[in-house]
Amino acid sequence: MYIDIFKLGQIILILLGIILLVLLIVILFKFIKTISSVNSIIRKNEINIDDLLSTLPKTIKNLCDITDNVKDVTAVVVKTTTSSNLKPTAPFQRYIVDIVDILTTIIKNISSNEKKTK
Asked: Would you tell me the crossing angle of helices 46-86 and 5-44 to the nearest 10 degrees?
């Protein structure tokens, strides 16, 4: 009795086909289980999802407004800093401004202390 190579190849291919079919069935069952768990999660959070979807347009509008505001402020800051860098100032002028700021702070503190004591 000799085994034909063609018959041996057929048997091996049939066994591989059966194994592949079993693997596909297992994968299909796991996929169905995953889909059902996703559906249950969505059902549990349906109210939260609806709330999120209803507030999302307002949030996006606010985000756009904030972005536009930041662009405007940035443009003003850049304009101000470039214009202040172009002005020649003497060093003593900067000291005078600092002294005026310190004196203003001192006067505010003194006046607030007088109001507290009264």
From this structure: 80
Q: Is 107 left (phi over 0), alpha (psi -120 to 50) or beta?
A: alpha
- Tens-binned pLDDT, residue by residue, of the chain (118 aa): 677 888 889 999 999 999 999 999 999 999 999 999 999 999 999 999 999 999 988 988 888 888 888 887 877 777 776 665 555 556 666 777 778 778 887 877 776 665 555 5
Euclidean distance between CA atoms 107 and 100, whole angstroms: 10
56/63 Cα distance (integer angstroms)? 10
CA atoms within 13 A on the CB side of 93: 4
